[in-house]
Amino acid sequence: MAANRGQKLEESLSYQQFSANIEEEESWIAEKQHLLSGEDYGDTLAAVQGLLKKHDAFETDLQVHHNRCAEIKDNGDKLIGEGNHNAESIAARCASLSEKMTGLEEAAHHRKAKLVDNSAFLQFIWKTDVVESWIADKETQIRSDDYGRDLSSVQTLLTKQETFDAGLQAFEKEGIQTITALKEQLVAASHAQTPAIQKRYDDVIQRWQKLLADSDARKQRLLRLQEQYRQVEDLYLTFAKKASAFNSWFENAEEDLTDPVRCNSVEEIRALREAHDQFKASLSAAQADFNQLAALDKQIKSFNVGPNPYTWFTMEALDDTWRNLQKIIKERDTELAREQQRQEENDVLRKQFAQAANHFHSWLTETRSAMMEGSGTLESQLEATKHKSTEVRSQRGQLKKIEDLGAALEERLILDNRYTEHSTVGLAQQWDQLDQLGMRMQHNLEQQIQARNTSGVSEDALREFSMMFKHFDKDKSGKLDHHEFKSCLRALGYDLPMVEEGQVDSEFQAILDSVDPNMDGLVSLQEYMAFMISRETENVQSSREVEEAFRALTAGEKAYITAAELYANLTKEQADYCIARMKPYVDGKGRQVLDSYDYVEFTDSLFVN
Protein backbone atom coordinates (compact mmCIF):
# COMPACT_ATOMS: atom_id res chain seq x y z
CA MET A 1 0.00 0.00 0.00
CA ALA A 2 2.90 2.30 0.80
CA ALA A 3 4.36 1.46 -2.56
CA ASN A 4 1.07 2.30 -4.20
CA ARG A 5 0.99 5.60 -2.41
CA GLY A 6 4.52 6.38 -3.45
CA GLN A 7 3.65 5.65 -7.06
CA LYS A 8 0.64 7.85 -6.78
CA LEU A 9 2.77 10.61 -5.45
CA GLU A 10 5.27 10.25 -8.30
CA GLU A 11 2.45 10.27 -10.84
CA SER A 12 1.01 13.38 -9.17
CA LEU A 13 4.43 15.06 -9.32
CA SER A 14 4.75 14.23 -13.04
CA TYR A 15 1.22 15.52 -13.59
CA GLN A 16 2.03 18.76 -11.76
CA GLN A 17 5.12 19.25 -13.88
CA PHE A 18 3.04 18.52 -17.01
CA SER A 19 0.35 20.93 -15.83
CA ALA A 20 2.94 23.66 -15.14
CA ASN A 21 4.28 23.30 -18.70
CA ILE A 22 0.79 23.42 -20.14
CA GLU A 23 -0.12 26.46 -18.08
CA GLU A 24 3.05 28.23 -19.17
CA GLU A 25 2.22 27.62 -22.85
CA GLU A 26 -1.41 28.50 -22.37
CA SER A 27 -0.33 31.75 -20.70
CA TRP A 28 1.97 32.58 -23.67
CA ILE A 29 -0.77 31.65 -26.11
CA ALA A 30 -3.27 33.84 -24.28
CA GLU A 31 -0.82 36.73 -24.31
CA LYS A 32 -0.12 36.38 -28.01
CA GLN A 33 -3.79 35.84 -28.78
CA HIS A 34 -4.47 39.22 -27.22
CA LEU A 35 -1.78 40.83 -29.32
CA LEU A 36 -3.03 39.20 -32.52
CA SER A 37 -6.53 40.43 -31.90
CA GLY A 38 -5.40 44.11 -32.34
CA GLU A 39 -6.64 46.08 -35.41
CA ASP A 40 -3.38 48.06 -35.96
CA TYR A 41 -2.23 47.05 -39.39
CA GLY A 42 -0.18 50.23 -39.99
CA ASP A 43 -1.28 53.44 -41.62
CA THR A 44 1.89 53.97 -43.60
CA LEU A 45 3.97 51.75 -45.78
CA ALA A 46 6.87 52.03 -43.33
CA ALA A 47 4.63 51.13 -40.38
CA VAL A 48 3.29 48.11 -42.25
CA GLN A 49 6.80 46.99 -43.11
CA GLY A 50 7.69 47.28 -39.38
CA LEU A 51 4.64 45.27 -38.33
CA LEU A 52 5.43 42.61 -40.93
CA LYS A 53 8.96 42.31 -39.58
CA LYS A 54 7.57 41.94 -36.04
CA HIS A 55 5.07 39.36 -37.28
CA ASP A 56 7.84 37.40 -38.98
CA ALA A 57 9.73 37.38 -35.66
CA PHE A 58 6.52 36.27 -33.92
CA GLU A 59 6.02 33.42 -36.38
CA THR A 60 9.58 32.27 -35.65
CA ASP A 61 8.77 32.34 -31.93
CA LEU A 62 5.39 30.64 -32.65
CA GLN A 63 7.19 27.78 -34.35
CA VAL A 64 9.35 27.31 -31.23
CA HIS A 65 6.23 27.21 -29.00
CA HIS A 66 4.48 24.95 -31.51
CA ASN A 67 7.34 22.51 -31.08
CA ARG A 68 7.17 22.87 -27.32
CA CYS A 69 3.43 22.16 -27.38
CA ALA A 70 4.16 19.08 -29.45
CA GLU A 71 6.71 17.97 -26.83
CA ILE A 72 4.23 18.63 -24.01
CA LYS A 73 1.58 16.56 -25.88
CA ASP A 74 4.08 13.76 -26.40
CA ASN A 75 4.91 13.90 -22.66
CA GLY A 76 1.19 13.77 -21.81
CA ASP A 77 0.68 10.82 -24.14
CA LYS A 78 3.56 9.15 -22.38
CA LEU A 79 2.06 9.77 -18.96
CA ILE A 80 -1.23 8.41 -20.19
CA GLY A 81 0.56 5.38 -21.60
CA GLU A 82 2.25 4.82 -18.25
CA GLY A 83 -1.18 4.73 -16.63
CA ASN A 84 -0.96 7.94 -14.76
CA HIS A 85 -4.05 8.18 -12.59
CA ASN A 86 -4.60 11.71 -14.06
CA ALA A 87 -4.73 10.32 -17.55
CA GLU A 88 -8.19 11.66 -18.20
CA SER A 89 -7.20 15.20 -17.11
CA ILE A 90 -3.94 14.97 -19.06
CA ALA A 91 -5.79 14.06 -22.24
CA ALA A 92 -8.22 16.93 -21.73
CA ARG A 93 -5.43 19.37 -21.04
CA CYS A 94 -3.49 18.23 -24.17
CA ALA A 95 -6.59 18.60 -26.30
CA SER A 96 -7.23 22.09 -24.90
CA LEU A 97 -3.58 23.16 -25.48
CA SER A 98 -3.65 21.81 -29.01
CA GLU A 99 -6.90 23.65 -29.69
CA LYS A 100 -5.52 26.94 -28.32
CA MET A 101 -2.30 26.59 -30.35
CA THR A 102 -4.31 25.95 -33.48
CA GLY A 103 -6.43 29.03 -32.73
CA LEU A 104 -3.31 31.08 -32.21
CA GLU A 105 -1.81 29.88 -35.48
CA GLU A 106 -5.02 30.69 -37.32
CA ALA A 107 -5.05 34.16 -35.73
CA ALA A 108 -1.41 34.64 -36.74
CA HIS A 109 -2.19 33.59 -40.34
CA HIS A 110 -5.17 35.91 -40.43
CA ARG A 111 -3.15 38.86 -39.12
CA LYS A 112 -0.35 38.25 -41.58
CA ALA A 113 -2.86 38.18 -44.40
CA LYS A 114 -4.26 41.46 -43.16
CA LEU A 115 -0.78 42.97 -42.93
CA VAL A 116 0.14 41.74 -46.41
CA ASP A 117 -3.13 43.13 -47.83
CA ASN A 118 -2.60 46.46 -46.10
CA SER A 119 1.01 46.54 -47.34
CA ALA A 120 -0.16 45.90 -50.89
CA PHE A 121 -2.82 48.62 -50.54
CA LEU A 122 -0.42 51.16 -49.11
CA GLN A 123 2.16 50.25 -51.73
CA PHE A 124 -0.52 50.79 -54.40
CA ILE A 125 -1.38 54.16 -52.85
CA TRP A 126 2.32 55.09 -52.69
CA LYS A 127 2.86 54.03 -56.29
CA THR A 128 -0.17 55.99 -57.46
CA ASP A 129 1.05 59.02 -55.48
CA VAL A 130 4.41 58.77 -57.21
CA VAL A 131 2.70 58.39 -60.58
CA GLU A 132 0.35 61.30 -59.87
CA SER A 133 3.25 63.47 -58.72
CA TRP A 134 5.15 62.67 -61.93
CA ILE A 135 2.03 63.42 -63.96
CA ALA A 136 1.56 66.73 -62.12
CA ASP A 137 5.14 67.71 -62.92
CA LYS A 138 4.63 66.88 -66.61
CA GLU A 139 1.31 68.73 -66.64
CA THR A 140 3.19 71.87 -65.62
CA GLN A 141 5.53 71.40 -68.57
CA ILE A 142 2.78 70.62 -71.03
CA ARG A 143 0.80 73.72 -70.00
CA SER A 144 3.70 76.00 -71.03
CA ASP A 145 2.69 78.94 -73.21
CA ASP A 146 6.07 78.93 -74.95
CA TYR A 147 5.44 77.81 -78.51
CA GLY A 148 8.49 79.52 -79.98
CA ARG A 149 8.92 82.78 -81.83
CA ASP A 150 10.56 81.50 -85.01
CA LEU A 151 11.37 78.32 -86.91
CA SER A 152 14.53 77.62 -84.94
CA SER A 153 12.90 77.96 -81.53
CA VAL A 154 9.86 75.88 -82.63
CA GLN A 155 12.14 73.13 -83.90
CA THR A 156 13.98 73.20 -80.57
CA LEU A 157 10.65 72.86 -78.73
CA LEU A 158 9.64 70.00 -81.04
CA THR A 159 12.86 68.19 -80.19
CA LYS A 160 12.07 68.69 -76.50
CA GLN A 161 8.51 67.48 -77.14
CA GLU A 162 9.79 64.31 -78.79
CA THR A 163 12.01 63.74 -75.78
CA PHE A 164 8.97 64.42 -73.55
CA ASP A 165 6.84 61.90 -75.49
CA ALA A 166 9.63 59.32 -75.25
CA GLY A 167 9.60 59.91 -71.48
CA LEU A 168 5.82 59.34 -71.43
CA GLN A 169 6.22 56.04 -73.27
CA ALA A 170 8.96 54.93 -70.90
CA PHE A 171 6.93 55.98 -67.86
CA GLU A 172 3.88 54.08 -69.13
CA LYS A 173 5.91 50.89 -68.76
CA GLU A 174 7.57 51.85 -65.50
CA GLY A 175 4.71 53.60 -63.72
CA ILE A 176 1.31 53.04 -65.28
CA GLN A 177 1.74 49.32 -65.96
CA THR A 178 3.04 48.87 -62.39
CA ILE A 179 0.01 50.43 -60.68
CA THR A 180 -2.28 48.59 -63.11
CA ALA A 181 -0.72 45.26 -62.07
CA LEU A 182 -1.05 46.23 -58.37
CA LYS A 183 -4.68 47.25 -58.85
CA GLU A 184 -5.56 44.04 -60.68
CA GLN A 185 -3.80 41.99 -58.02
CA LEU A 186 -5.70 43.72 -55.20
CA VAL A 187 -9.07 43.51 -56.97
CA ALA A 188 -8.51 39.85 -57.85
CA ALA A 189 -7.76 39.16 -54.17
CA SER A 190 -11.06 40.86 -53.28
CA HIS A 191 -9.23 43.34 -51.14
CA ALA A 192 -11.38 45.09 -48.58
CA GLN A 193 -10.38 48.50 -50.12
CA THR A 194 -11.29 47.40 -53.63
CA PRO A 195 -13.72 50.33 -54.30
CA ALA A 196 -11.19 52.89 -53.03
CA ILE A 197 -8.44 51.16 -55.01
CA GLN A 198 -10.54 51.17 -58.17
CA LYS A 199 -11.49 54.85 -57.74
CA ARG A 200 -7.93 55.87 -57.03
CA TYR A 201 -6.74 53.94 -60.07
CA ASP A 202 -9.44 55.43 -62.31
CA ASP A 203 -8.59 58.98 -61.18
CA VAL A 204 -4.89 58.48 -61.92
CA ILE A 205 -5.58 56.84 -65.29
CA GLN A 206 -7.98 59.64 -66.24
CA ARG A 207 -5.28 62.20 -65.40
CA TRP A 208 -2.76 60.13 -67.35
CA GLN A 209 -4.99 59.98 -70.40
CA LYS A 210 -5.50 63.76 -70.20
CA LEU A 211 -1.71 64.25 -70.02
CA LEU A 212 -1.28 62.10 -73.14
CA ALA A 213 -4.01 64.06 -74.93
CA ASP A 214 -2.50 67.43 -73.88
CA SER A 215 0.95 66.27 -74.96
CA ASP A 216 -0.34 65.22 -78.35
CA ALA A 217 -2.26 68.49 -78.71
CA ARG A 218 0.91 70.47 -77.90
CA LYS A 219 2.89 68.40 -80.39
CA GLN A 220 0.28 68.95 -83.10
CA ARG A 221 0.26 72.67 -82.42
CA LEU A 222 4.05 72.79 -82.58
CA LEU A 223 3.95 70.89 -85.87
CA ARG A 224 1.43 73.38 -87.26
CA LEU A 225 3.60 76.25 -86.04
CA GLN A 226 6.65 74.60 -87.58
CA GLU A 227 4.90 74.46 -90.94
CA GLN A 228 3.71 78.03 -90.50
CA TYR A 229 7.19 79.25 -89.59
CA ARG A 230 8.61 77.33 -92.54
CA GLN A 231 6.28 79.31 -94.74
CA VAL A 232 7.34 82.47 -92.90
CA GLU A 233 10.98 81.43 -93.28
CA ASP A 234 10.51 81.02 -97.03
CA LEU A 235 8.78 84.38 -97.14
CA TYR A 236 11.58 85.93 -95.07
CA LEU A 237 14.23 84.56 -97.44
CA THR A 238 12.31 85.55 -100.55
CA PHE A 239 11.74 89.04 -99.20
CA ALA A 240 15.40 89.37 -98.14
CA LYS A 241 16.67 88.32 -101.59
CA LYS A 242 14.26 90.57 -103.46
CA ALA A 243 14.87 93.48 -101.06
CA SER A 244 18.64 93.12 -101.47
CA ALA A 245 18.33 93.01 -105.26
CA PHE A 246 15.94 95.97 -105.24
CA ASN A 247 18.25 97.98 -102.98
CA SER A 248 21.28 97.16 -105.15
CA TRP A 249 19.32 98.30 -108.21
CA PHE A 250 18.32 101.47 -106.37
CA GLU A 251 21.89 102.21 -105.22
CA ASN A 252 23.17 101.83 -108.79
CA ALA A 253 20.31 103.95 -110.09
CA GLU A 254 20.87 106.56 -107.39
CA GLU A 255 24.58 106.65 -108.18
CA ASP A 256 23.83 107.18 -111.88
CA LEU A 257 21.08 109.71 -111.22
CA THR A 258 23.14 111.76 -108.74
CA ASP A 259 26.36 111.56 -110.74
CA PRO A 260 27.27 115.14 -111.72
CA VAL A 261 26.35 115.90 -115.31
CA ARG A 262 29.63 116.62 -117.08
CA CYS A 263 29.24 116.89 -120.84
CA ASN A 264 31.50 118.35 -123.48
CA SER A 265 29.14 118.33 -126.43
CA VAL A 266 25.53 118.38 -127.49
CA GLU A 267 25.87 114.74 -128.56
CA GLU A 268 26.97 113.71 -125.08
CA ILE A 269 24.03 115.40 -123.34
CA ARG A 270 21.65 113.92 -125.92
CA ALA A 271 23.09 110.47 -125.23
CA LEU A 272 22.60 111.06 -121.51
CA ARG A 273 19.01 112.14 -122.01
CA GLU A 274 18.31 109.10 -124.19
CA ALA A 275 19.82 106.82 -121.51
CA HIS A 276 17.72 108.60 -118.88
CA ASP A 277 14.56 108.12 -120.94
CA GLN A 278 15.39 104.42 -121.33
CA PHE A 279 15.87 104.19 -117.56
CA LYS A 280 12.49 105.77 -116.93
CA ALA A 281 10.94 103.34 -119.41
CA SER A 282 12.43 100.44 -117.40
CA LEU A 283 10.84 101.66 -114.16
CA SER A 284 7.77 99.50 -114.81
CA ALA A 285 9.83 96.40 -114.04
CA ALA A 286 11.14 98.02 -110.86
CA GLN A 287 7.56 98.98 -109.94
CA ALA A 288 6.54 95.33 -110.34
CA ASP A 289 9.41 94.25 -108.06
CA PHE A 290 8.38 96.87 -105.51
CA ASN A 291 4.76 95.65 -105.60
CA GLN A 292 5.94 92.05 -105.08
CA LEU A 293 7.92 93.18 -102.03
CA ALA A 294 4.84 94.95 -100.66
CA ALA A 295 2.75 91.78 -101.15
CA LEU A 296 5.39 89.64 -99.44
CA ASP A 297 5.56 92.08 -96.52
CA LYS A 298 1.78 92.01 -96.12
CA GLN A 299 1.79 88.19 -96.16
CA ILE A 300 4.58 88.05 -93.56
CA LYS A 301 2.80 90.51 -91.27
CA SER A 302 -0.38 88.39 -91.47
CA PHE A 303 1.46 85.74 -89.42
CA ASN A 304 2.07 88.31 -86.66
CA VAL A 305 5.78 87.51 -86.44
CA GLY A 306 8.83 89.58 -85.56
CA PRO A 307 11.29 91.38 -87.83
CA ASN A 308 12.99 89.57 -90.71
CA PRO A 309 16.25 88.06 -89.37
CA TYR A 310 17.78 87.80 -92.85
CA THR A 311 17.73 91.48 -93.80
CA TRP A 312 17.73 94.91 -92.22
CA PHE A 313 15.52 96.23 -95.02
CA THR A 314 11.95 96.94 -94.00
CA MET A 315 9.05 97.71 -96.31
CA GLU A 316 8.81 101.15 -94.72
CA ALA A 317 12.46 101.86 -95.58
CA LEU A 318 12.00 100.54 -99.13
CA ASP A 319 8.89 102.69 -99.52
CA ASP A 320 10.95 105.75 -98.51
CA THR A 321 13.60 104.63 -100.99
CA TRP A 322 11.04 104.37 -103.80
CA ARG A 323 9.60 107.82 -103.08
CA ASN A 324 13.12 109.27 -102.92
CA LEU A 325 13.84 107.72 -106.32
CA GLN A 326 10.90 109.51 -107.87
CA LYS A 327 12.22 112.79 -106.44
CA ILE A 328 15.73 112.13 -107.77
CA ILE A 329 14.34 111.33 -111.25
CA LYS A 330 12.54 114.68 -111.38
CA GLU A 331 15.69 116.50 -110.26
CA ARG A 332 17.66 114.63 -112.93
CA ASP A 333 15.16 115.67 -115.60
CA THR A 334 15.66 119.32 -114.63
CA GLU A 335 19.44 118.99 -114.47
CA LEU A 336 19.68 117.30 -117.88
CA ALA A 337 17.42 119.90 -119.50
CA ARG A 338 19.57 122.68 -118.03
CA GLU A 339 22.77 120.97 -119.23
CA GLN A 340 21.37 120.51 -122.74
CA GLN A 341 20.60 124.22 -122.93
CA ARG A 342 24.15 124.96 -121.72
CA GLN A 343 25.72 122.62 -124.28
CA GLU A 344 23.68 124.13 -127.10
CA GLU A 345 24.90 127.58 -126.05
CA ASN A 346 28.46 126.22 -125.85
CA ASP A 347 28.14 124.74 -129.31
CA VAL A 348 27.12 128.12 -130.72
CA LEU A 349 30.17 129.67 -129.03
CA ARG A 350 32.43 126.91 -130.44
CA LYS A 351 31.17 127.63 -133.95
CA GLN A 352 31.74 131.38 -133.54
CA PHE A 353 35.30 130.78 -132.33
CA ALA A 354 35.98 128.17 -135.03
CA GLN A 355 34.73 130.45 -137.80
CA ALA A 356 36.96 133.31 -136.64
CA ALA A 357 39.97 131.06 -135.91
CA ASN A 358 39.77 129.16 -139.21
CA HIS A 359 39.47 132.40 -141.17
CA PHE A 360 42.35 133.97 -139.24
CA HIS A 361 44.54 130.89 -139.76
CA SER A 362 43.79 130.95 -143.51
CA TRP A 363 44.83 134.60 -143.60
CA LEU A 364 48.04 133.78 -141.67
CA THR A 365 48.88 130.97 -144.11
CA GLU A 366 48.19 133.08 -147.17
CA THR A 367 50.15 136.03 -145.79
CA ARG A 368 53.15 133.83 -144.92
CA SER A 369 53.11 132.34 -148.41
CA ALA A 370 52.88 135.82 -149.91
CA MET A 371 55.85 136.98 -147.85
CA MET A 372 57.96 133.94 -148.65
CA GLU A 373 57.10 133.91 -152.35
CA GLY A 374 57.92 137.56 -153.06
CA SER A 375 59.25 138.45 -156.54
CA GLY A 376 60.60 141.49 -158.35
CA THR A 377 63.51 143.71 -157.42
CA LEU A 378 64.91 143.75 -153.91
CA GLU A 379 63.42 147.19 -153.42
CA SER A 380 59.96 146.07 -154.54
CA GLN A 381 60.17 142.98 -152.33
CA LEU A 382 61.19 145.20 -149.41
CA GLU A 383 58.26 147.50 -150.04
CA ALA A 384 55.87 144.54 -150.33
CA THR A 385 57.24 143.02 -147.14
CA LYS A 386 56.80 146.31 -145.26
CA HIS A 387 53.23 146.47 -146.53
CA LYS A 388 52.55 142.91 -145.36
CA SER A 389 54.13 143.65 -141.98
CA THR A 390 51.81 146.63 -141.61
CA GLU A 391 48.90 144.40 -142.56
CA VAL A 392 50.01 141.79 -140.00
CA ARG A 393 50.03 144.38 -137.21
CA SER A 394 46.65 145.67 -138.32
CA GLN A 395 45.22 142.18 -137.78
CA ARG A 396 46.08 142.33 -134.08
CA GLY A 397 42.54 143.54 -133.45
CA GLN A 398 41.09 140.45 -135.13
CA LEU A 399 43.38 138.27 -132.97
CA LYS A 400 42.07 140.14 -129.92
CA LYS A 401 38.50 139.21 -130.89
CA ILE A 402 39.56 135.56 -131.20
CA GLU A 403 41.29 135.77 -127.81
CA ASP A 404 38.08 137.21 -126.30
CA LEU A 405 36.11 134.31 -127.77
CA GLY A 406 38.74 131.91 -126.42
CA ALA A 407 38.46 133.51 -122.97
CA ALA A 408 34.69 133.04 -123.14
CA LEU A 409 35.25 129.35 -123.98
CA GLU A 410 37.64 128.96 -121.06
CA GLU A 411 35.22 130.74 -118.74
CA ARG A 412 32.57 128.17 -119.67
CA LEU A 413 35.18 125.39 -119.25
CA ILE A 414 35.02 124.44 -122.94
CA LEU A 415 38.30 122.65 -123.52
CA ASP A 416 37.69 121.12 -126.94
CA ASN A 417 36.32 122.34 -130.25
CA ARG A 418 35.58 119.86 -132.98
CA TYR A 419 34.94 122.65 -135.47
CA THR A 420 38.56 123.79 -135.52
CA GLU A 421 42.01 122.53 -134.74
CA HIS A 422 43.30 125.97 -133.85
CA SER A 423 43.73 127.46 -130.39
CA THR A 424 44.10 131.02 -129.18
CA VAL A 425 47.66 130.37 -128.04
CA GLY A 426 48.59 128.69 -131.32
CA LEU A 427 47.16 131.50 -133.43
CA ALA A 428 48.85 134.13 -131.25
CA GLN A 429 52.17 132.31 -131.65
CA GLN A 430 51.69 132.05 -135.42
CA TRP A 431 50.77 135.74 -135.63
CA ASP A 432 53.86 136.64 -133.58
CA GLN A 433 56.04 134.39 -135.75
CA LEU A 434 54.60 136.02 -138.87
CA ASP A 435 55.30 139.47 -137.42
CA GLN A 436 58.86 138.40 -136.57
CA LEU A 437 59.22 136.87 -140.04
CA GLY A 438 58.21 140.19 -141.61
CA MET A 439 60.82 142.04 -139.58
CA ARG A 440 63.50 139.47 -140.36
CA MET A 441 62.68 139.55 -144.03
CA GLN A 442 62.85 143.35 -144.04
CA HIS A 443 66.26 143.22 -142.40
CA ASN A 444 67.34 140.49 -144.77
CA LEU A 445 66.21 142.43 -147.84
CA GLU A 446 67.91 145.57 -146.53
CA GLN A 447 71.01 143.45 -145.94
CA GLN A 448 70.82 142.11 -149.50
CA ILE A 449 70.42 145.63 -150.94
CA GLN A 450 73.35 146.82 -148.82
CA ALA A 451 75.44 143.83 -149.91
CA ARG A 452 74.54 144.41 -153.53
CA ASN A 453 75.47 148.07 -153.31
CA THR A 454 78.71 147.64 -151.34
CA SER A 455 80.04 144.12 -151.85
CA GLY A 456 79.42 143.66 -155.51
CA VAL A 457 77.11 140.65 -155.06
CA SER A 458 74.64 140.82 -157.91
CA GLU A 459 70.93 141.13 -157.37
CA ASP A 460 70.40 138.06 -159.53
CA ALA A 461 72.65 136.05 -157.24
CA LEU A 462 70.81 137.35 -154.18
CA ARG A 463 67.48 136.52 -155.85
CA GLU A 464 68.70 133.04 -156.63
CA PHE A 465 69.82 132.51 -153.04
CA SER A 466 66.43 133.70 -151.77
CA MET A 467 64.41 131.64 -154.28
CA MET A 468 66.39 128.52 -153.48
CA PHE A 469 65.83 129.00 -149.73
CA LYS A 470 62.08 129.46 -150.25
CA HIS A 471 61.99 126.37 -152.47
CA PHE A 472 63.31 124.15 -149.69
CA ASP A 473 61.33 125.94 -146.96
CA LYS A 474 58.32 123.68 -147.50
CA ASP A 475 56.44 124.76 -144.37
CA LYS A 476 57.05 128.46 -145.03
CA SER A 477 58.52 128.85 -141.54
CA GLY A 478 61.47 130.98 -142.69
CA LYS A 479 63.90 128.28 -141.46
CA LEU A 480 65.60 125.20 -142.90
CA ASP A 481 66.63 122.14 -140.97
CA HIS A 482 70.11 120.74 -141.61
CA HIS A 483 68.91 118.24 -144.19
CA GLU A 484 67.00 120.94 -146.14
CA PHE A 485 69.98 123.29 -145.85
CA LYS A 486 72.32 120.65 -147.29
CA SER A 487 69.93 119.99 -150.18
CA CYS A 488 69.71 123.73 -150.79
CA LEU A 489 73.55 124.04 -150.96
CA ARG A 490 73.77 121.17 -153.44
CA ALA A 491 71.09 122.82 -155.56
CA LEU A 492 73.22 125.97 -155.57
CA GLY A 493 76.19 123.99 -156.91
CA TYR A 494 78.09 123.13 -153.73
CA ASP A 495 79.95 119.88 -154.20
CA LEU A 496 79.24 118.12 -150.91
CA PRO A 497 80.31 114.46 -150.72
CA MET A 498 77.79 111.65 -150.19
CA VAL A 499 78.42 109.87 -146.88
CA GLU A 500 76.97 106.74 -145.36
CA GLU A 501 74.32 107.06 -142.69
CA GLY A 502 75.96 107.59 -139.32
CA GLN A 503 79.18 108.98 -140.81
CA VAL A 504 80.18 112.61 -140.23
CA ASP A 505 80.47 114.94 -143.24
CA SER A 506 83.37 117.09 -142.05
CA GLU A 507 83.00 119.63 -144.86
CA PHE A 508 79.29 120.18 -144.19
CA GLN A 509 79.93 120.19 -140.46
CA ALA A 510 82.42 123.06 -140.96
CA ILE A 511 79.70 125.02 -142.78
CA LEU A 512 77.22 124.31 -139.98
CA ASP A 513 79.71 125.54 -137.37
CA SER A 514 79.65 128.96 -139.04
CA VAL A 515 76.03 129.21 -140.11
CA ASP A 516 74.45 127.49 -137.04
CA PRO A 517 77.02 127.93 -134.26
CA ASN A 518 74.44 127.34 -131.47
CA MET A 519 73.48 124.02 -133.16
CA ASP A 520 69.73 124.46 -132.66
CA GLY A 521 69.17 122.34 -135.77
CA LEU A 522 67.71 125.21 -137.85
CA VAL A 523 69.14 127.79 -140.26
CA SER A 524 67.17 131.04 -140.57
CA LEU A 525 66.85 133.01 -143.78
CA GLN A 526 69.01 135.72 -142.23
CA GLU A 527 71.75 133.26 -141.28
CA TYR A 528 71.54 131.61 -144.68
CA MET A 529 71.82 134.90 -146.61
CA ALA A 530 74.70 136.06 -144.41
CA PHE A 531 76.52 132.82 -145.16
CA MET A 532 75.88 133.02 -148.89
CA ILE A 533 76.93 136.71 -149.05
CA SER A 534 80.08 135.90 -147.06
CA ARG A 535 80.89 133.14 -149.51
CA GLU A 536 80.38 135.56 -152.39
CA THR A 537 82.67 138.14 -150.80
CA GLU A 538 85.26 135.75 -149.38
CA ASN A 539 87.78 136.96 -151.96
CA VAL A 540 88.08 140.36 -150.23
CA GLN A 541 91.80 140.69 -149.41
CA SER A 542 92.41 144.17 -147.93
CA SER A 543 91.39 145.94 -144.73
CA ARG A 544 90.08 148.70 -146.90
CA GLU A 545 87.47 146.38 -148.43
CA VAL A 546 86.35 145.15 -144.99
CA GLU A 547 86.23 148.68 -143.70
CA GLU A 548 84.04 149.69 -146.65
CA ALA A 549 81.78 146.74 -145.94
CA PHE A 550 81.24 147.89 -142.31
CA ARG A 551 80.69 151.44 -143.51
CA ALA A 552 77.97 150.19 -145.87
CA LEU A 553 76.13 148.69 -142.88
CA THR A 554 75.94 152.05 -141.09
CA ALA A 555 73.28 154.64 -141.62
CA GLY A 556 74.83 157.57 -143.53
CA GLU A 557 78.23 155.86 -143.86
CA LYS A 558 79.43 157.01 -140.45
CA ALA A 559 82.91 156.34 -139.05
CA TYR A 560 81.35 154.10 -136.37
CA ILE A 561 78.72 151.37 -136.20
CA THR A 562 75.99 150.73 -133.54
CA ALA A 563 75.08 147.44 -131.92
CA ALA A 564 71.63 147.60 -133.51
CA GLU A 565 73.19 147.87 -136.95
CA LEU A 566 75.47 144.91 -136.25
CA TYR A 567 72.59 142.70 -135.03
CA ALA A 568 70.37 143.82 -137.87
CA ASN A 569 72.84 142.83 -140.58
CA LEU A 570 74.93 140.04 -139.07
CA THR A 571 74.09 136.84 -137.29
CA LYS A 572 73.87 137.06 -133.56
CA GLU A 573 77.07 135.11 -133.15
CA GLN A 574 78.87 137.39 -135.64
CA ALA A 575 77.50 140.53 -133.98
CA ASP A 576 78.47 139.19 -130.53
CA TYR A 577 81.99 138.50 -131.83
CA CYS A 578 82.39 142.09 -133.21
CA ILE A 579 80.99 143.83 -130.12
CA ALA A 580 83.27 141.75 -127.87
CA ARG A 581 86.36 142.91 -129.83
CA MET A 582 85.52 146.42 -131.14
CA LYS A 583 86.52 149.40 -129.02
CA PRO A 584 84.01 152.15 -128.24
CA TYR A 585 84.22 154.97 -130.84
CA VAL A 586 85.90 158.28 -129.79
CA ASP A 587 85.51 161.33 -132.10
CA GLY A 588 88.23 163.87 -133.04
CA LYS A 589 87.59 165.92 -129.88
CA GLY A 590 88.12 162.90 -127.63
CA ARG A 591 84.42 162.42 -126.88
CA GLN A 592 82.97 158.91 -126.72
CA VAL A 593 79.83 158.44 -128.80
CA LEU A 594 77.19 156.48 -126.90
CA ASP A 595 76.47 152.93 -128.15
CA SER A 596 78.98 153.13 -130.98
CA TYR A 597 81.93 150.98 -131.98
CA ASP A 598 85.16 151.76 -133.92
CA TYR A 599 85.11 149.38 -136.89
CA VAL A 600 88.18 151.04 -138.48
CA GLU A 601 90.46 150.19 -135.56
CA PHE A 602 88.87 146.73 -135.40
CA THR A 603 89.56 146.11 -139.12
CA ASP A 604 93.17 147.32 -138.85
CA SER A 605 93.81 145.07 -135.87
CA LEU A 606 92.40 142.08 -137.75
CA PHE A 607 94.70 142.54 -140.69
CA VAL A 608 97.70 143.25 -138.46
CA ASN A 609 97.02 139.98 -136.69
Fold and architecture overview:
The chain is mainly α. 78% of the residues lie in helices and 3% in strands. Strands 1-2 form a two-stranded antiparallel sheet. A two-stranded antiparallel sheet has the order 3-4. Helix 11 packs across helix 16 (543-553), helix 12 packs antiparallel against helix 15 and helix 17 (563-569) packs antiparallel against helix 18. It is rod-shaped, with a radius of gyration of 72 Å. The mean pLDDT is 84.
Condensed summary:
This protein has 609 residues and is mainly α. It has 19 helices and 4 strands.
Shape: rod-shaped
Strand portion: under 5%
Strand order of the largest sheet: 1-2
Structural class: mainly alpha
In sequence order, what are the helices and strands, one letter per element? HHHHHHHHHHHHEHHEHHHHEEH
Query: What integer value in Å does the Rg equal?
Result: 72 Å
Mean pLDDT: 84
Task: Report helical residue fraction.
Answer: over 70%
Number of helices: 19
Q: Largest sheet, if any?
A: 2 strands, antiparallel
